[in-house]
Amino acid sequence: MGSWSLRFLAGLGLLAVLLTCCSSEVNSCLTARSGTCSDCLQAGVGCAYCSEEDFGFPRCDLHEKILAHGCNAAYVIKATSKQTIVQNEAINMNLQRSQVSPQEVRMTFLPGETRELDVNVFAPTKGPLDLYILMDFSNSMKDDLDNLKKMGNKLATVVQEISSDYTIGFGKFVDKVIEPQTDMRPDKLKQPWPDSDSPFSFKNVIPLIKDVNSFTAKLQKERISGNLDAPEGGFDAILQAAVCKKEIGWREGSTHLLVFSTESAFHYEADGANVLAGILPRNDEACHLDENGVYIQATKQDYPSIPTLVRVLGNHNIIPIFAVTNHSYMYYLKLKEYFPIAEIGVLQEDSSNILEIMRDAFVSIQSKMSIRAENRPKAFGAQFLDSSNKEVRYGAFNFKPGEIGKFKVKLTAQQKHGEQPVCKVDPGDKEGTIKVKPTTFDSAVNVKASILCETCDCEKTPTLKAKRCNGKGNLVCGKCLCDDGWAGAFCNCSKTSGSTKDQCIGPGMTESCSGRGDCQACGTCVCYNPDQYEGPYCQYDKTQCQRVAGILCNDRGSCVMGRCACSEGWKGNACECSKSNETCLDNKGKICGGRGKCVCGSCQCPDTGSGIALSPTCEPNFEFLRGVCEETRKCVQCKAWKTGEKKDEAKCKDCLVEVIMVDELKEREEVLDSCRFVDEDNDCTYEYTVETSKDPTNTKLLAEVLKKRDCPAASLLWLLPLILFLLLLLALLLLCCWKYCACCASCWQNCLALLPCCRGGRMVGFKEDEYLLHQSQLTSNHLNTPMVRTGPPKGTDVVRWKVKDNVHRVPSHPRELMQPNPDEMIQFPISLRLNRLFSENLSRPESKDAEQLRQEVADNLNEVYKQIPEAQKVQQTLFRLQKNAGKRGNYTIMDTVLSAPRRAYPDIVKLTEKNVQSGNFGDLKVVPGYYTVATDREAAGAVEFQEDVEMVDVHVPLFVKDDDDDKKQLKVEARDVPLGIATIAKRFVNITIIKEHATSIFSFLQPKYTYSRKDGVAHIPISREIIEDGRTQVTYNTQDLSAKNKKDYMSVQGDLSYAPGETEKIVPVRLLELSEKDGFLEDKPIKQFVMDLSNPRQGAKLGRYPRTTVTIADTQEPSVMMFKKGNQNFSTLDQTYPIPVVRSRNEDSPATVKWRTKKSQRFDLSGSLKFAPGETEKNIVIEPFPGSVQPETFQLELYDPSTNAVVGERKNTVVNITEEPRSPEIAQMQSKGYVSPRGTTPGGRLLPPGNLKAKATGPRNIRLNWDPPPGNPVGYKVKYWIYGDPEKDAKVLDVRTPQAELTNLLPFCDYETRVCAYNSMGDGPDTNIVSCQTLEDAPGEPGRLAFNVISPTVTQLSWAEPAETNGDITAYEVIYTPIDDEMKPVGGAKKVKIDNPKKRMLLIENLQSAQTYQYKVRAQNSVGWGPCRDATINLASQPSRPMSIPIIPDIPIVDAEAGDEYDSYLMYSNDVLKSPTSSKTPSVSGDDYMSNGRWEQNFLFPGGSTTRNLSASSSPMSTLSSNYKGGAGGSFTTEMHTTYMTGPGSPRRRDMIGGGIHTTEVLMRKRSENRGYTDENIRDSIVIGDDKFPDLNARLSPGVPDTPSRLVFSALGPTALKVSWQEPHCEKDVLGYCVLYQLLNGGETKRLNVTNPAENSVVIHDLLPNHSYLFKVKAQSQEGWGPEREGVITIESAVDPKSPLSPMPGSPFTLSTPSAPGPLVFTALSPDSLQLTWEKPRKPNGDILSYRVTCEQLHDGGDMRSFNVSGNNAETSLTVPNLTENVPYKFKVQAQTTQGFGPEREGIITIESQDGGALSQYNSQSVTRRDVFQMSPEMTTRTNVSHTMINDPYFSDGMMMTQFTETGSMVSRQVTREVVQRNVTGASTVTKRMFYES
User: Fold this and answer.
1) 270-279, 447-456, 1391-1400, 1509-1518: which has the highest mean pLDDT?
2) Do the beta carbons of residue 862 and residue 922 sit within 8 Å?
3) pLDDT band with cut points at 50, 70 and 90 for residue 1517
4) 981 phi, psi to nearest 5 deg
């Protein structure tokens, strides 16, 4: 093989590698071109690999491209996926049960592949039904229960109507039996109301049974019960009814309905301290019904959340029906929206209509079906399509029961999951069984889907040391894989061998690599731009293949090695020939109309010789000319009647029209056209039709002419002299009457009345008395109000009119009393009728005719109205026609706007009327008798009745404004007749406008769109903004502008129907390809059409864009980008080096190109240059390094342009930096501009520049381009000003080139510009004004923040829209952060995004009480986020408004603790126990310090910490005593007596103990799953504080770091942990840290060194789940290592039973430490008894057998009592009787396990009687609790808390919440809340206290 061919193939191989890196095509196969055959097949759908050895193109590509490049089909390797239907039993409609078809399908997918499956579903009309009634049994529902008992027979009838196979069941609920939900007094627990049962949470009374009589009988035995608070515990009941499938009796295959009847709101998870009794554990979603059907875990776990209910009911196929009363209806209406299918009905007060609700709800449910794809692996996406292939959102279909519903499910396999190729992810994420089913069905389509990751067999059998690879490599799948040190396609080149550029010069070439690449080793060329150049010598340009109409390879192939590789079905050098003749068929299905030949997919038509153009399919194309009638008119005249221009026989013979005379013409629909003309020779009207001949061989047109013509009667010209004489006589008579009569007007009219033609007189007036309009149906701000004239129609009458707005308002109306400012500048709309006929061009504002006339109008009107003081120039000039305007209907109406002071209105009216009467506005000719001048509240004008005109329209403005009254009235008055004899009859007309509140607003998303003809279809979205949901409609239709129907596009019109919740629909408009004749036009006109919205129904309105303009763009050639000059010279004095890059062609689209420096000693730079639409030149700006500027020469290179651009010839430029003075380019750029002297002579002035164009290039930039005028202009002056400002205030920019860049403009603002040229003779004239709007920019900060304080922990935040939106606001973000008095954050910032920009409000719950927060709000538009508006507030210092019941508001709601989910939090302290391997007793890391009566407590949220103060000195009752004993085995006792009172928080400060600072830190841990391992997803942390009291006598060596003051553990996953710490105090700089960790039970100690002192955290990924670790952290300085901070931590998570060290994917994980029994909770039952409750230890050492409880008086007043409590429950209770008032007792609780007794939990409690009386007298009681925890060494903390009741609006009836802490061995400090409920009986008070976990 020759060396040339070897280099050729080597170059191709390397080119294939480079294409992988550089290609920007959207082709997934390209990413695998440098990989293996298997990589290719796994790259995506459609990828194939060519294993042919001699294949010279990239081996991995799309299958069709591989074949097009010549690969033998036998060597093509590709993967094929399959779809197999395993089970497909047809739906049997006779079976009355839910069915789906098919039942089982297997699908394999290639990465990126999409498959569709047709699915049939069937829901029977009377299928099996399970109906479970769940009823509120609180006392308020007593009459409802009585009515239900009476409905036994009716209930049976209703159920039988619904189903023939039914079961019915009944359950009841009240609420949790615990305060404050339930009255816990013994007598009330027994019977809360007369004739009632004991309270309960939920009971399954009647499981689902078929016997209605038995159901009714059992229901008769039920009695009502009762509770305290208004919301009920129905959520507990719903969840139990759903999950207890066996106990309730739900059947497989039946429809499950749950009727939920109540009149109250609901409790839900984390309901708040004012409502809940503090049930801490989250609902476990398990069934907990005992043998009697009673829910037994109600008081031991929380209510379920709303998302939990939605998920659980969906999983069990249960549809809820909410039957609720009026006052709770809104809560459940909002709740209903969370469920895929649910219904709601309004109960009457006694529930007498519950059966009707059930019947109506079932009928509604039967018509709905929500389809879901359950158990879908992560690598798959699912969509649902209806029968018309439109996507149905949320899978909501309306299928009728009893009929088979059809839909499609579209499954898509992703190519990547995250950043990882899909073939690399876990098997469970890319394969599984997807259940496609309606939510109410048990049956489903089981789709076993998997992603196919094929491998190539040829990789398994490589040819080692293959001969083709010269023995230096292996041949694998046709490709050489070279050994180390060898390269080339055949491994024939050593990498160590040298190379010369001569090896890279091909035959007939002079430059190395054709000047387009670098010559590498072995003579291999590496092209600079592989996207453009290819070949072994880079000799082929991919943009230089043959083109058709400027389109490369006709867009039907690709340019490969200088030739077009055509796609299937196309051929030719430019792929211009279609192999099909379908494109040659005409409308009748004939090839080329039977007249021509089909060549290359196009018709070659014969020359008809008639001048009639033919269409691309050889049909007569009259639309291209003047129309069929106009083209055939002269020929029909000459052949049928021997008249017209062609009546000479010679001319008539050339006509290609065959004429047939007929008695009756065919219908218009049957022929090409129907024509009617007047013969100019004899004034006869003749008619005919035109059609093509049915004979294919006859190319003539066939004209059938009606034999009968309509000719006028004989001429009456002899009467003309007589008529002229009589008219002259009449004129003399009238002149005498006017001249000599005493009363001119009276005599004038009397004289006219004497005439026979005018004897009756004339009257004018409005046609109607009143108009009633609905604002939502208005399509214009004007109403054409008809005015009629009666009597003799001879002569002209001009009628002046006026209209006034808001005449319905009385003078005392508040808005009428507010008189407007007379000096206010307002806009005066003015309308005139120009003495100029209207043309279609004038309707297009951008047309040349409209622009010229607009300029003429502006010049003349500005000249006239300058007489008005302070008047500005007219603007917004438009032209239109006025329908029903008499004989002037085809004259142009001009509408413009004049800005002037309000007081100028009368003067403007007089001046306008004066000029209209004269017929001239300056040099502008106007038609007398018509004008309109308006303000914002009144208008005046005139209309003209010409001779023989009986009716004209008055164009009345309606003054529609946003602040209009709901019903307003306008009065239009015909004032007088200044010209004419008519009298006014009906003088007034009233217009009433009713302003409805729109239910929906329809609008296009944009005012204009651009589509390419290549797109084939323009998809126009029409959006709907929902204000009140429901069904609604709107009409759409298209209209021609420059684009013509059936030539450029296919017109569409119709109605769009929007279902409830639907917000957007797409209207497709088909775009047609250019005709062959248009395709060859070089300057193709812009093709545009418009689409309009109209006739909104059901209370909807049209919004911002009721019309959109669609531009059809033809395919354009790519932009060419290159350096402006080959060399750039700069000085060392220049501060920057701007290197210009220019762009040509296709300038209206954005384009990018990358650049980089080459051969530079100091600069190694690269970047990207982006050209915005309209930009033709940009600079690459290089800033030299300060102080190091040296003379140098380097190069800049352009490469890797975007797909719509190429790099031109000057892809490189040389930059020279010299020590010469400042370069002239920079000097000119930094100059202030040049102002030329104004010429003094009229000669030599320049013409205005031409073709001024303005394009916004940024939010503050506009780029101007124009054509220079003839002559030699020295420069140009650019004037620009804000639209609406006077031009005299314009800024002027002086430039020397015909382009300018306007900078420092306002974003999203309209500007007007002019340009003039100047020379030595002065300034030339200005161009016309050109307007341009700058692009959007980031918005400004929002307006003021307002706070509606609901409670000390709940606030409603609202804000105003930014003053500078700089675009359309799309979203807001609220950030709130806890801060201290120095405005420093003390906790993590929380962010909430609000996607609806109209809802500028947020409800924030569960904030920390008495904590100061900083709130920030910022806005977002299409550009990005703007700056924040911030405010700081402490809710405790603000007046509050309590919120008594939970709601689901319309505004966004967020939980400050739970983020945006319905998850609760647990609270753990920082006392993490650690047990070193050498110690068998636990030690405590961190204690409480209190001084000066203050306790400081920190809460650490995920991502940070926050601090709040609880003051212990806020009342005179507060006391604090401390006793410290040091040494091992000693004791530490703290006793505190505190009274908490609400009020403003104490000033924050940090308390000092012996010179040290201490804070107690508590973490809020969220109980929810965590599937991420990043910092943003941290869900769990534990904080360790100081180890011990500071030893004031012990001092470290100077310069040695202290112990890190805080250690924070944050769980990132079941095996990942983030360890953070705070920098310790050190007199010298800290150099780094060391982190040591090992298993607690021994093992290898691992060490991590942190050498960067700025880093204070490490992430560890190799931990074992459920294993305890000991961590140590210490700091280092120059003086050595400091002491260690230690902590023990365990990450608990679910693990695989088969592999205990492998966590279950997706399982939740938590941090934990060992613990004793939970904190002791005391509830006073009477003066001598209480209830003691505690929780199970978190990690007991062995299985718990029982608990030992001891009780003794604290001060040795009696014997110790002991109790043994058996059980291993999560929570255990014990009632202790025979206690004594006012005596403190000490209780101890120990758990006994299989290993012995564990540590004790102690508590001290006193039942105090404040007045010493007995409980029987109902005197005031209080409970004081003191907790002591026994430790080893002994450490005791005693906390004595009493309470003072205060009146706080947040707590009803004296309810109060306080917080305190207790210390426990082996457990984190628990934060406990106390709720005090006071019940008043007579004049006495009973106080109960109940403690619960937060």
Assistant:
1) 447-456
2) no
3) very low
4) -110, 0
**SS3 of residue 430 by DSSP:** helix
Q: For 415-429, 1112-1126, 1305-1319, 1532-1546, which range has the lowest pLDDT when averaged over its residues?
A: 1532-1546
Residue 743 phi/psi, 5-degree rounding, is -105, 105
Q: Which residues contact 254 (CB under 8 A, 6 or more apart)?
A: 97, 127, 128, 129, 130, 165, 167
DSSP 652-719: HHT--EEEEEESSPPPGGGSSEEEEEE-TTT--EEEEEEEE-SSTT--SEEEEEES--B------GGG
Q: Angle 1279-1281-1285 (CA atoms, 0-180°, nearest 5)?
A: 135
Q: Which residues contact 1628 (CB under 8 A, 6 or more apart)?
A: 1599, 1677, 1678, 1679
The predicted pLDDT at position 1552 comes to 32
Q: Token pair 């949790």 is at which residue?
A: 176
Residue 1852 has which token pair?
């009803």
* Contacts of 1027 by beta carbon, 8 Å cutoff, 6+ apart: 997, 998, 999, 1000, 1001
Q: What is the mean pLDDT of residues 327-338?
A: 84
d(CA 1214, CA 544): 27
Amino acid at 162: I
What is the pLDDT at residue 1441? Answer: 38
- Report the alpha-carbon distance of residue 887 to residue 1601 in Å, rounded: 100
**Which residue type does 1651 have?**
T
Q: What angle do CA 208, 211, 215 make, to 5 degrees?
A: 70
**Banded model confidence at residue 128, pLDDT cuts 50, 70, 90:** confident
Residue 1140 near residue 1226 (C-beta atoms within 8 A): no
Model confidence at 774: pLDDT above 80: no
Cis geometry, peptide bond prior to residue 128 (ω within 30 degrees of 0)? no
Q: Give the H/E segment covering residue 731.
A: helix 720-740
If you ran DSSP here, which 8-state letter would residue 640 be given? I
The token pair at 1270 is 């003839």
> Alpha-carbon distance 107 to 117, whole Å?
10
Average pLDDT (1420-1431) is 88
Exposed (0-12), middle (13-18) or buried (19+): which is 1764, by Cβ within 10 Å? Answer: exposed
| CA distance readout (Å), 1803 to 1469, 1800, 1828 | 19, 10, 5
H-helix segments, 124-263:
142-150, 152-162, 186-190, 212-219, 234-243, 245-248
Q: Which of 983, 882, 866, 872 is nearest to 932 (CA)?
A: 882
Dist CA 1542 CA 1843 (whole Å): 11
Overall size of the chain counted in residues: 1894
Confidence bin at 1280 (pLDDT 50/70/90) = very high
CA distances from 975 to 412, 526, 952, 1046 (A): 72, 87, 16, 50
pTM of the entire predicted model: 0.36
Residue in 1006, 1088, 988, 998 with CA at minimum distance from that of residue 1045: 1088
Does residue 354 or residue 130 have the better pLDDT?
130
Residue-wise pLDDT tens digits, 1553-1574: 333 333 222 222 222 233 333 3
Q: Where are the beta strands (DSSP E) in 1366-1463?
A: 1371-1378, 1390-1394, 1401-1405, 1412-1420, 1429-1434, 1453-1455
Distance, in Å, from the CA atom of 594 to the CA atom of 612, rounded to the nearest integer, reads 16
Burial track 552-590 (b if 16+ CB lie within 10 A, e otherwise): bbbebbbbbbeebbbbeebbbebbbbbeeeeebbbeeee
Contacts 24+ apart (CB under 8 A), 1216-1220: 1216/1127, 1216/1128, 1216/1129, 1216/1130, 1217/1130, 1217/1131, 1217/1132, 1217/1137, 1217/1184, 1217/1189, 1217/1190, 1217/1191, 1217/1192, 1217/1193, 1218/1129, 1218/1130, 1218/1131, 1218/1132, 1218/1191, 1219/1131, 1219/1132, 1219/1191, 1220/1131
